[in-house]
Design brief:
Layout (H helix, E strand, L loop, with lengths): L1 E3 L12 E5 L5 E5 L7 E2 L4 E2 L5 E5 L6 H14 L6 E3 L9 E5 L13 E5 L10 E4 L13 H14 L29 E2 L16 E4 L5 E3 L9 E2 L1 H9 L8 E6 L5 E2 L4 E7 L4 E8 L2 E6 L4 E4 L7 E11 L4 E10 L14 E4 L2 E4 L22 E3 L4 E3 L1 E3 L10 E6 L2 E6 L32 E2 L1
Parallel strand pairs: 1-9, 2-7, 2-8, 8-10, 16-22, 16-30
Antiparallel strand pairs: 3-6, 4-5, 9-10, 11-14, 12-13, 15-17, 17-20, 18-19, 18-21, 21-22, 23-24, 25-26, 27-29, 28-29
Helix pairs in contact: 1-2
Length: 449
């Protein structure tokens, strides 16, 4: 069943969160809007019912059966970029389906579910829909979780302008189907919901008689077309269900920079579907959360002298994460290793860096940037190793390392082969071959303020 809601047009979906509400202790529903068709999942308000505050009675069957419904809906909606949750998002934007009770709880009669629809916009913001679970079994022995799943999927899809269809395998149908229904990626004829020659939305029904119910074909409610493609509609709103993490970067400072306390940090996090948040951590401690990109924050002024890790993690609307990390140094310039705070540090280009005796330090074997204190893992001809930026003209690398040209800067790379390795006979002054196409931080050392 569908009902019309009036609201301003919106050009794109504003959230991909769908809250499945079990109503374990019953759900209070605000019906004071008086069947206006308006809706707000954040306040559990619905204009599809009337008579003041009402209570949708609790889900009566077991947690195991509820989990079957959740698993089914997760599967049916998996082709789309929709994030299902069983935790109430409260005041955050979300779509919601209350799966419990009976239509009489809301003063309704003869419906298995109900949802708002608005043909003037692509979706109903914060839509609250209902799938009346009591209609499909009150105990574990007789509950039909597949049917409840199909009803919940249908009512949710009404909020995205989808009408009923005649394909019995699609959740939008009124026809019976012996197994799980899935949204059909094809142009499907609208219909199946006709009574006395009219559809649930009042459209005239045509076509051959179907049993005793008469003609069951009608034009689709919102655009008057003869068919609809549910997969195309839902994909246009939410994207597909493939995992594409955000693109994240720290643009200021650069890895290896020497900075002053309270230095500025600029981060960028973007996603093709939508960014939920970006979290900035220093040495593993959360220091800032941003919901827009780019953003700039000041580092804590009390960070100790020495090397610190800045890590930025971006999360898209589906919760998929991507992380980038760099190393920076706080403190004055060094002349000798003895000027540095750690006994395992070395002094390179007037800055302290983790030396060969430090875990993840200069010269350590690595497979990727995250395995190095410098966050730079490169191949200088003898295999991947952790390197540090340096000045090729100054040759400011510690003993047993040479400053090998790389780009417009250089990198400290070990002179001798590692124990057990082979000597390639490479000239230490020959250009370094980087193991990763883009290497941040070798374009020269500069102090950031």
């Amino acid at each position: 069943m569908i009902a019309l809601v009036a609201a301003a047009a919106i050009s794109q979906v504003d959230t991909n969160v769908v809250y499945l509400n079990r109503c374990a202790i019953g759900c209070a529903v605000d019906c004071t809007m008086g069947q206006t068709g308006q809706t707000d999942s954040r306040t559990d308000a619905s204009g599809l019912c009337s008579g003041g505050p009402r209570t949708l009675t609790r889900w009566k069957t077991s947690t195991a059966k509820w989990n079957e419904v959740v698993a089914c809906l997760t599967d049916v909606l998996s082709p789309f970029g929709i994030r299902i949750t069983e935790t109430d998002p409260l005041t955050a934007k979300h779509f919601e389906v209350m799966i419990a009770g009976s239509p009489s709880d809301l003063g309704l009669v003869g419906v298995g579910g109900i949802a708002p629809i608005n043909c003037s916009q692509p979706f109903v913001p914060n839509a609250l829909a209902f799938a009346f679970a009591d209609n499909y079994g009150l105990t574990d022995l007789d509950v039909d979780t597949e049917q409840i799943c199909a009803v919940a999927a249908q009512e949710l899809a009404h909020a995205f302008r989808l009408d009923h269809v005649t394909d019995a395998s699609d959740p939008m149908t009124y026809y019976d189907w012996p197994s799980r229904r899935r949204f059909v990626d094809a142009q499907v004829t609208c219909g199946s919901d006709c009574t006395n020659g009219f559809s649930a939305s009042g459209r005239t029904c045509t076509g051959p008689d179907v049993g005793t119910t008469g003609p069951q074909i009608h034009t689709c409610r919102c655009d008057g077309a003869p068919t609809q493609n549910a997969v195309q509609v839902l994909t246009a709103l939410f994207g597909d269900g493939s995992v594409t993490p955000p693109l994240v970067s720290i643009t200021q400072p650069m890895t290896g920079d020497t900075v002053d306390p309270g230095f500025a940090i600029t981060g960028v996090a973007v996603d093709d579907v939508g960014l939920d948040r970006a979290e900035l951590r220093i040495d593993g401690t959360l220091v800032a959360t941003a919901h827009v990109s780019p953003f700039t924050v000041a580092a804590p002024a009390d960070l100790a002298v020495g090397t610190h890790e800045l890590a930025l993690t971006g999360y898209d609307l589906a919760g998929t994460a991507a992380r980038v990390a760099i190393a920076i140094y706080i403190g004055g310039p060094c002349a000798l290793a003895s000027d540095c705070p750690q006994a395992t540090d070395v002094c390179i280009a007037a800055r302290c860096a983790a030396g060969p005796d430090a875990p993840r330090g200069l010269g350590a074997t690595c497979a990727n940037n995250s395995e190095c204190a410098s966050t730079i893992c490169a191949d200088g001809g003898r295999g991947l190793a952790c390197v540090e930026p340096c000045d090729p003209l100054g040759h400011a690398c510690p003993a047993e390392f040479s400053c090998v040209p790389a780009g417009s800067g250089g990198a400290c790379y070990r002179d001798a082969p590692r124990p057990g390795g082979c000597n390639t006979g490479r000239d230490p002054g020959a250009p370094i071959v980087l193991g990763f196409g883009l290497w941040f931080g070798v374009l020269g050392r500069r102090r950031r303020r």
